[in-house]
Amino acid sequence: MKKQNKEEAAEQEKQTVEENQSSQEQTEEVKENETEKEVQPELSKEEELEQKVADLNDKYLRLYSDFENFRKRTIKEKGDLISNASQGVLKDMLAVLDDFERAIDNNQTSEDAESIKQGFQLIYNKFNNILTAKGLKPMDSKGEVFDIDHHEAITNIPAEDDMKGKVVDVVEKGYFLNDKVLRYAKVVVGQ
Protein backbone atom coordinates (compact mmCIF):
# COMPACT_ATOMS: atom_id res chain seq x y z
CA MET A 1 0.00 0.00 0.00
CA LYS A 2 2.77 2.36 0.81
CA LYS A 3 4.27 1.53 -2.52
CA GLN A 4 1.04 2.35 -4.26
CA ASN A 5 0.68 5.62 -2.39
CA LYS A 6 4.22 6.58 -3.32
CA GLU A 7 3.51 5.83 -6.96
CA GLU A 8 0.30 7.87 -6.89
CA ALA A 9 2.07 10.72 -5.16
CA ALA A 10 4.84 10.60 -7.77
CA GLU A 11 2.30 10.70 -10.58
CA GLN A 12 0.43 13.58 -9.03
CA GLU A 13 3.68 15.45 -8.58
CA LYS A 14 4.56 14.76 -12.20
CA GLN A 15 1.16 16.09 -13.35
CA THR A 16 1.57 19.17 -11.19
CA VAL A 17 4.99 19.86 -12.72
CA GLU A 18 3.58 19.46 -16.25
CA GLU A 19 0.67 21.79 -15.45
CA ASN A 20 3.07 24.36 -14.04
CA GLN A 21 5.22 24.15 -17.17
CA SER A 22 2.24 24.60 -19.50
CA SER A 23 0.91 27.53 -17.47
CA GLN A 24 4.38 29.12 -17.57
CA GLU A 25 4.47 28.67 -21.34
CA GLN A 26 1.03 30.29 -21.66
CA THR A 27 2.14 33.15 -19.45
CA GLU A 28 5.25 33.66 -21.58
CA GLU A 29 3.13 33.67 -24.77
CA VAL A 30 0.79 36.28 -23.30
CA LYS A 31 3.80 38.40 -22.30
CA GLU A 32 5.26 38.07 -25.82
CA ASN A 33 1.97 39.15 -27.38
CA GLU A 34 1.78 42.13 -25.03
CA THR A 35 5.34 43.16 -25.87
CA GLU A 36 4.56 42.86 -29.58
CA LYS A 37 1.58 45.14 -29.10
CA GLU A 38 3.76 47.56 -27.20
CA VAL A 39 6.39 47.47 -29.98
CA GLN A 40 3.84 48.61 -32.58
CA PRO A 41 3.28 52.25 -31.84
CA GLU A 42 -0.23 53.56 -32.04
CA LEU A 43 -0.86 55.84 -35.00
CA SER A 44 -1.35 59.49 -34.26
CA LYS A 45 -4.43 61.33 -35.47
CA GLU A 46 -2.48 62.87 -38.35
CA GLU A 47 -1.19 59.52 -39.51
CA GLU A 48 -4.67 58.00 -39.30
CA LEU A 49 -6.08 60.84 -41.36
CA GLU A 50 -3.27 60.54 -43.90
CA GLN A 51 -3.97 56.81 -44.20
CA LYS A 52 -7.69 57.51 -44.70
CA VAL A 53 -6.89 60.11 -47.35
CA ALA A 54 -4.60 57.64 -49.15
CA ASP A 55 -7.32 54.95 -49.06
CA LEU A 56 -9.97 57.35 -50.34
CA ASN A 57 -7.62 58.60 -53.06
CA ASP A 58 -6.97 55.02 -54.15
CA LYS A 59 -10.72 54.29 -54.28
CA TYR A 60 -11.27 57.50 -56.26
CA LEU A 61 -8.59 56.61 -58.82
CA ARG A 62 -10.03 53.10 -59.29
CA LEU A 63 -13.55 54.47 -59.71
CA TYR A 64 -12.33 57.11 -62.15
CA SER A 65 -10.46 54.55 -64.26
CA ASP A 66 -13.52 52.25 -64.28
CA PHE A 67 -15.65 55.16 -65.47
CA GLU A 68 -13.14 56.06 -68.21
CA ASN A 69 -13.12 52.44 -69.43
CA PHE A 70 -16.93 52.42 -69.44
CA ARG A 71 -17.06 55.70 -71.36
CA LYS A 72 -14.58 54.51 -73.99
CA ARG A 73 -16.42 51.19 -74.38
CA THR A 74 -19.79 52.91 -74.88
CA ILE A 75 -18.31 55.33 -77.43
CA LYS A 76 -16.86 52.39 -79.36
CA GLU A 77 -20.19 50.51 -79.21
CA LYS A 78 -22.08 53.58 -80.45
CA GLY A 79 -19.60 53.97 -83.31
CA ASP A 80 -20.06 50.32 -84.27
CA LEU A 81 -23.84 50.71 -84.18
CA ILE A 82 -23.71 53.80 -86.38
CA SER A 83 -21.30 52.29 -88.89
CA ASN A 84 -23.34 49.09 -89.19
CA ALA A 85 -26.82 50.62 -88.87
CA SER A 86 -27.51 50.18 -92.56
CA GLN A 87 -26.51 46.52 -92.51
CA GLY A 88 -30.06 45.19 -92.93
CA VAL A 89 -30.89 47.48 -95.84
CA LEU A 90 -27.62 46.77 -97.61
CA LYS A 91 -28.09 43.03 -97.16
CA ASP A 92 -31.50 43.29 -98.83
CA MET A 93 -30.01 45.35 -101.66
CA LEU A 94 -27.45 42.65 -102.45
CA ALA A 95 -30.17 40.65 -104.22
CA VAL A 96 -30.77 43.59 -106.56
CA LEU A 97 -27.04 43.93 -107.15
CA ASP A 98 -26.82 40.23 -108.00
CA ASP A 99 -29.72 40.60 -110.47
CA PHE A 100 -27.98 43.51 -112.15
CA GLU A 101 -24.80 41.48 -112.57
CA ARG A 102 -26.75 38.57 -114.09
CA ALA A 103 -28.60 40.91 -116.45
CA ILE A 104 -25.35 42.47 -117.64
CA ASP A 105 -23.80 39.01 -118.19
CA ASN A 106 -26.86 37.86 -120.20
CA ASN A 107 -26.91 41.05 -122.30
CA GLN A 108 -23.31 40.52 -123.39
CA THR A 109 -24.36 37.73 -125.74
CA SER A 110 -27.73 39.14 -126.84
CA GLU A 111 -28.27 41.20 -129.96
CA ASP A 112 -30.21 43.96 -128.20
CA ALA A 113 -29.40 47.55 -128.91
CA GLU A 114 -26.13 48.88 -127.58
CA SER A 115 -28.00 51.65 -125.73
CA ILE A 116 -29.86 49.09 -123.58
CA LYS A 117 -26.56 47.46 -122.63
CA GLN A 118 -25.06 50.82 -121.74
CA GLY A 119 -28.17 51.70 -119.70
CA PHE A 120 -27.83 48.54 -117.66
CA GLN A 121 -24.13 49.24 -117.11
CA LEU A 122 -24.77 52.86 -116.03
CA ILE A 123 -27.48 51.88 -113.55
CA TYR A 124 -25.30 49.08 -112.19
CA ASN A 125 -22.28 51.38 -111.79
CA LYS A 126 -24.31 54.05 -109.99
CA PHE A 127 -25.94 51.50 -107.68
CA ASN A 128 -22.61 49.81 -106.96
CA ASN A 129 -20.90 53.16 -106.21
CA ILE A 130 -23.59 54.08 -103.69
CA LEU A 131 -23.22 50.74 -101.90
CA THR A 132 -19.41 51.03 -101.95
CA ALA A 133 -19.67 54.50 -100.40
CA LYS A 134 -21.69 52.98 -97.54
CA GLY A 135 -18.83 50.55 -96.77
CA LEU A 136 -19.78 47.54 -98.91
CA LYS A 137 -16.86 45.58 -100.40
CA PRO A 138 -17.08 42.40 -102.51
CA MET A 139 -15.04 39.33 -101.52
CA ASP A 140 -12.52 37.97 -103.98
CA SER A 141 -12.87 34.25 -103.36
CA LYS A 142 -11.98 32.40 -106.54
CA GLY A 143 -8.62 30.67 -106.23
CA GLU A 144 -8.33 31.57 -102.52
CA VAL A 145 -7.82 29.01 -99.76
CA PHE A 146 -11.19 27.94 -98.32
CA ASP A 147 -11.84 29.90 -95.10
CA ILE A 148 -14.89 29.10 -92.99
CA ASP A 149 -14.86 32.67 -91.64
CA HIS A 150 -15.61 34.02 -95.15
CA HIS A 151 -16.94 31.13 -97.24
CA GLU A 152 -19.85 28.74 -97.17
CA ALA A 153 -19.09 25.50 -99.01
CA ILE A 154 -21.94 24.37 -101.25
CA THR A 155 -20.18 21.29 -102.57
CA ASN A 156 -16.79 19.67 -103.09
CA ILE A 157 -15.47 18.55 -106.47
CA PRO A 158 -12.36 16.60 -107.44
CA ALA A 159 -9.55 18.95 -108.40
CA GLU A 160 -5.88 19.01 -109.31
CA ASP A 161 -3.29 19.05 -106.54
CA ASP A 162 -2.74 22.82 -106.77
CA MET A 163 -6.49 23.50 -106.24
CA LYS A 164 -7.10 21.14 -103.31
CA GLY A 165 -8.59 23.03 -100.38
CA LYS A 166 -9.10 26.12 -102.52
CA VAL A 167 -12.19 27.77 -103.96
CA VAL A 168 -12.78 26.44 -107.49
CA ASP A 169 -15.97 28.35 -108.30
CA VAL A 170 -18.13 31.06 -106.69
CA VAL A 171 -21.88 30.37 -106.80
CA GLU A 172 -22.88 33.53 -104.92
CA LYS A 173 -20.54 36.44 -104.19
CA GLY A 174 -19.78 37.34 -100.60
CA TYR A 175 -19.57 40.88 -99.24
CA PHE A 176 -17.96 42.78 -96.38
CA LEU A 177 -19.53 45.75 -94.62
CA ASN A 178 -16.84 47.80 -92.87
CA ASP A 179 -14.51 44.76 -92.70
CA LYS A 180 -17.22 42.54 -91.18
CA VAL A 181 -18.77 39.74 -93.20
CA LEU A 182 -22.20 40.83 -94.41
CA ARG A 183 -22.85 37.78 -96.58
CA TYR A 184 -20.75 34.65 -96.81
CA ALA A 185 -19.61 33.64 -100.28
CA LYS A 186 -21.22 30.40 -101.45
CA VAL A 187 -18.42 28.46 -103.09
CA VAL A 188 -17.38 25.14 -104.61
CA VAL A 189 -14.24 23.73 -103.00
CA GLY A 190 -11.64 21.50 -104.71
CA GLN A 191 -10.91 18.19 -103.04
TrEMBL record:
Main location: cytoplasm
CDD domains xrefs: GrpE
Cytoplasm listed as a keyword: yes
PANTHER family noted in UniProt: GRPE PROTEIN, GRPE PROTEIN HOMOLOG, MITOCHONDRIAL
NCBIfam families: PRK14140.1 (NF010738)
Oligomer and partners: Homodimer.
Purpose of the protein: Participates actively in the response to hyperosmotic and heat shock by preventing the aggregation of stress-denatured proteins, in association with DnaK and GrpE. It is the nucleotide exchange factor for DnaK and may function as a thermosensor. Unfolded proteins bind initially to DnaJ; upon interaction with the DnaJ-bound protein, DnaK hydrolyzes its bound ATP, resulting in the formation of a stable complex. GrpE releases ADP from DnaK; ATP binding to DnaK triggers the release of the substrate protein, thus completing the reaction cycle.
Descriptive protein name: Protein GrpE
Organism of provenance: Brumimicrobium aurantiacum
